[in-house]
Amino acid sequence: MTLPLLHPTLEVWPQSALIDEPLSIRLAGSAPGVPVTVTARMTDHAGELWASDATFLARNDGTVDLTTTAPVAGSYDGVEPMGLVWSMRRTGTDGWGPPFALNTLESLTLTVTTSSEGITVSATVERCLVATGVTHREVREGGLVGIFFRPPGAGPFPSVLCFGGSGGALSGGALQQAALLAARGYATLALAYFAMDGLPDTLANIPLEYFETALDWLAAQPAVRDDTVAALGASRGGELALLLGATFPRVRAVVAYVPSHVSWGGFGPGIAPGTVPAWTYRGEPVSFPRRRSGTAPPSPPAPDPDTPVVGTPSFLTVLAIPGVEAEAAIVVERINGPVLLLSGQDDQMWPSALMAARASDRLTAHQHPFPVEHHAYDGAGHLFRLPFLPETVTAARHRVSGVLSAFGGTPHGNARAAEHAWSRTRAFLDQHLT
User: Fold this and answer.
1) pTM of this prediction?
2) Which residue, among 368, 204, 201, has the nearest Cα to 286 in the 3D structure?
3) Given this model, what pLDDT does residue 6 score?
């Protein structure tokens, strides 16, 4: 008997889309029941190649649809439409390397290849950060350092002030979050506050008036509604988002990823923990847990350079010191709007799930008149910002301290958290700002 000729076709759709939009990957024309290996390749902004693979059994009709089919082997398990993307690992690098580099606004190229019965088919799609019609420009006015994104259309638009955490500059996904929110109708300012030209070198003695200037600048833009601005930050930026909301009534909504409910001290090379304030206001330090004689935890031993440092126990030790939380708590009940808290149950940088819960509890205790949400994700660590990106790095060297730090979570847990958290962020802003 002569077997029919196979003419497999591969469809990866959409061919060009924003990076936070899911993909459909479907192969047709294979022989029924044969194994089909699907690989994915994508190069990050640092020039590093990331890859994944999964093997499927073709259905009776000769198709393989990743939105409905689980692989029988490969880099992820279960039915995961975007599993090939979040399970990608860096190629050609031994040891602990940095997370997937997403530090510009350049589009990414994803290549998907299928192989079965000696026949190979490939498709390439574009993953964009800036939508058609969104404009952006650098901001170097009034001492500010950032990038302003304007949606298409006449406006006026609600606005979001986005910033990162202890990585400095425009790290932590703030730049990309700002760009993607602009595609959904928000005027956004991605703001740096240290570790860039014209700004302090370290996260220490940062005046909250700097952010007040940013809020005023945003409100003064012709296409911006001056009565609807949100603050969005992650990690130390999540702490900052709560602090800004508690300080400036102009902030009408707060989104805090893996935040703290207290203001911590300064951070950076040469700064001993608990000795320098991170933030100041009206020339005075914002209260923080200070190093106290007889109560400060002992200094940890020098870390093994090849073993990730777990930071959460140290933060828990400080929080257990009597009086610390009362001294340094952010007065979240003063926030003039709703609050969205997003945390990881397996956060190993600091105990974000506990700290976000305490912020939520304080809001409840003070009968906060606006909606409050807290989503604490099982299996998630410290690094989940945007969906549909590689999530396989759970420890890396901190870009400021250089210490090999544990982030926590599993690739699957972080991927699920990133997808849900970003969906909730967009829905939260749509509900309360538009």
Assistant:
1) 0.95
2) 204
3) 66
